[in-house]
Amino acid sequence: MELKRLAVPAVTALLVLATGCTGATVQGRPGASGVRDPLFPRAGNGGYQVEHYALDLAYDPADGQLHGTAVITARAEQGLSSFNLDLSGLKVEGVDVQGAGARFNRTGTELTVRPAKDLKKGEVFRTTVDYGGRPKPVVDPDGSREGWITTGDGAVAVGEPVGSMGWFPGNHHPSDKASYDVTVTVPDGYEAVSNGQLRSRREVGDGRTEFAWHSPEPMASYLATVAIGKFKVTTGRTPSGVAVYDAVAPGEAAGSEAALKRLPEIVEWGGAKFGPYPFGTAGSIVMPARTLAYALETQTKPVYSGAPDELLVLHELAHQWFGNSVSPKTWKDMWLNEGFATYAEWLWSEDHGGVSAQRRFEAFLAGDTSVDDQAGGDWAAFPPAVPAGPDHVSDAPVYYRGAMVLHRIRQEVGDERFFDLLRGWAADHRYGNASTEDFTAYAERRTGHDLKKVWDVWLYGQGRPKA
Ligand code: TRP
Ligand code: ZN
C-alpha cells in the first residue's frame, strides 16, 4: 500500500518534467490519485468530476474476453496537466483526450493520463479509453468478491464499494455521480442487461446482438451493472407508470415469481413512504444461485444471487431512495444506506401484518431472536457512524444499529415529523451526496428537536445502549 502511494507522485513528477522539456506553458498540475475516503483512500480521483460515461462493451461468454471503449465526459475542477482514472486489471490499448492521443501510465489500480494539452479549470473534456482482456474479480477487505463475476454461461458486474474499476475506467468513488449510456454486444441468444432504459436491441451481424441502455439520472459508479446470460425477460409497469424490466436466470424463475410480482406494489409503497420513486425505470436481475454471496442495489435494477424473497426485494428497492438517489459522501456514511434500507424492512413489516418497528427495536435491545433472527447479532460492536474499518462496512451495526438510530429519532419526534423527515431527506438530497453530519443537522432542523443525545449514544457512542 505505501509503495503505491509513493509511486504515483513519482510518475506525475516525471510527467511534469516532461512538460518542462517541451517548453509548453504549464497551466495545470496533476489531479489527485484518490479523494481521501476515510475507509478506501485510493478510491476515486481528484481534479475533475465526470458528467457522463458512454461505455461500449463487447463480451464473449465462451472465452471470457471483454473489450471496451469508455468515453468519459468530465469537467476539470482545476488546471490539469494529468489526471487519474481507476482501473483494475485489463489492458489499456489507447487513450485520447479531446481527440488527441494522450500518454498514459499504470501503477496498481491507477491509470494516469497525460493529455497532449493541459486542461483548463472549468473545461469540459472528453477522454476515450480503449481497453480489454479477461476481467478478474476484485476482492474486498472483508473477502467478498465484486467487479466482473462470471457464471456458467455469462457474467455480472457489481461494484460496491470499488469493484467497478474491475470492468471500466472511471472516477470510482460515490462522490462523483454521472449519467450513463452502456452498450453491450453479446453473441445472439444472450441477453445483456444494464441500468436504466433499453433504448435499442438489434442484431449487428456476425452472430451478435447489441443492447443499448440509458441512465439519465446521476449514478454513483458502484451502482453501475451489466448482466449477461440467457435470461427470461418480463416487462411491465407500476400502477403509477414506472417501467419495470425483470431479467431472471431460467433456473430461478419459479422461485422468484412471488417476490417479483410484488415489485410494482413495493415501488408504490416506497413512493408513499419516502416520496416519489427517484428513477424512470425499475426492475431486477436475478442471477443463478451462488453467483455472489450478496444482493446489490444496482441502480434501477438490483442484482440478486438466486431467487430473492419479498423482504430482500424491498430492501434493495429502498436503496433506490437511500443510497442511490441520496448517496453517501464517503464510505464511512454507509449506515445512511444500510440503516435506512433495514428500517424500510421494519416499516414494510409493520404495514403488512408483521411486528411493529417498536417491538422489533425492543427485540434488538433484548437480543430476542424470536421476533427477529438478527436481534442476537453484535449490533453494538461499533457505532454505525464510525465503522471499525473497510472490512466492517457490511457488519451488523451498520445495518441494525443504523435502523435503531432511525427508530430512536421516531420515538423522540413522533410519527408525523419522522415520516416528514424521511421524505424531506430524500427530496432535498435527491441525486446528490450526503454525510452523517449532513443528516444530523438536517434531522434537527426539519423536526425542530434537539437530538444530540441520540447522536451521542446511538450514532457515535461506543458500547451497547440500554434504551
Ligand atoms: N449493499 C448490499 C445490500 O445490503 C450489500 C453489499 C454488497 C455490500 N456488497 C457490499 C455492503 C460491499 C458493503 C460493501 O443490499
Ligand atoms: Zn443494503
Can you describe this structure in just a few lines?
The chain contains 9 helices and 23 strands.
List keywords for this structure.
467 residues, alpha+beta, Immunoglobulin-like, Neutral Protease, domain 2, 3 domains, five-stranded antiparallel beta sheet, 23 strands, 29% helix, globular, disordered N terminus, binds tryptophan, binds zinc ion, Peptidase_M1, Aminopeptidase_N-like_N
Strand order of the largest sheet: 6-5-9-3-2-13-16-15
Form type: globular
CATH superfamily of the largest domain: tricorn interacting facor f3 domain
Please give the largest β-sheet: 8 strands, mixed
CATH topology assignment of the largest domain: Immunoglobulin-like
* Structure summary, number of beta strands: 23
Percent of residues in helices: 25-40%
Q: Please, how many helices?
A: 9
| Number of separate domains | 3
Ligands, deduplicated: tryptophan, zinc ion
First-last Cα distance: 42 Å
The CATH architecture name of the largest domain reads Sandwich
For this structure, what is the CATH class of the largest domain?
Mainly Beta
As a percent range, the share of strand residues is 25-35%
Structural class: alpha+beta
Cα gyration radius (Å): 23 Å
Domain Peptidase M1 membrane alanine aminopeptidase: 310-458
Protein name: Aminopeptidase N
Cofactor: Zn(2+)
Signal peptide: 1-24
